[in-house]
Specification:
It is built from 9 helices and no strands. The protein is mainly α. It has one domain: Serine Threonine Protein Phosphatase 5, Tetratricopeptide repeat (Alpha Horseshoe). Helix 5 packs antiparallel against helix 6. The protein is globular. The structure holds adenosine-5'-diphosphate and magnesium ion.
Length: 203
């Protein structure tokens, strides 16, 4: 991965979170404590502030450092969870794993940290299906793979609406969590789109 690609990934993810922070916070007001967008904006601003240093690193090191920044800067559950995702990906990258292997390790670390799995109405309800698409369709031409990943993320986020939350703050609401999109599933969908945007532009 080139320095320019790393910088583009930082720019696009940070811009997405900045643009969507209010909407994410709105979703968290409905079934949480109304800080998800603010939390992530703080984290991605911290990553963007380190853009030059991070993009000059080996990808595995940049992923690890970005994950550490999220753990340190983001209050709330999502910081350590997204931090675990990036640090898990870093670990697999360091061991020579390809992108599906990296995302698999990242998702495994989120599951471990969150003591959670698919179906609990969390970010994992987007991350796990996206991982499955990446694993099963990795051999397809890049434009088709990117389209499949975007579609999976959209469908998976949509599927969180009727779910009953059994993890995180939304679980305190019980049945009242039904009928709302999960904030973390939505930020995952948005971040996946941001990464797809950058990868689609690669020559
Ligand atoms: P907090 O809930 O501490 O206020 P955020 O609002 O930033 O943190 O993030 C909330 C999101 O974090 C939820 O919408 C959900 O997607 C995700 N989340 C919360 N708990 C867990 C968990 N145990 N496992 C996976 N994801 C979780
Ligand atoms: Mg919150």
């Amino acid at each position: 991965m080139t320095e320019a690609l790393l910088a583009a990934l930082i720019d696009r993810t940070a811009a997405t979170i900045a643009a969507e922070a209010e909407a994410l916070t709105g979703l968290d007001q409905a079934i949480g404590d109304g800080d998800h967008g603010l939390n992530l904006r703080r984290g991605f601003e911290a990553i963007a502030a380190e853009r030059a240093r991070l993009s000059a690193m080996a990808p595995a090191d940049a992923l690890h450092q970005a994950g550490m920044l999220l753990v340190m800067k983001v209050g709330g559950a999502s910081g350590p969870l997204y931090g675990s995702l990036l640090m898990g990906m870093a670990k697999a990258a360091k061991a020579g794993g390809d992108l599906p292997a990296q995302l698999a390790e990242g998702v495994a670390q989120v599951q471990k940290r969150g003591k959670s799995d698919a179906g609990a109405k969390t970010m994992l309800d987007v991350l796990i299906p996206v991982l499955a698409t990446l694993q099963t369709q990795a051999g397809r031409p890049r434009p088709e793979l990117i389209r499949a990943i975007r579609q999976t993320a959209d469908d998976a986020r949509e599927a969180t609406k009727p779910m009953l939350a059994t993890r995180g703050r939304a679980s305190f609401l019980g049945e009242r969590s039904i009928g709302h999109y999960d904030p973390g599933a939505t930020s995952s969908q948005l971040l996946i789109h941001a990464v797809c945007d950058v990868l689609a532009e690669q020559p």
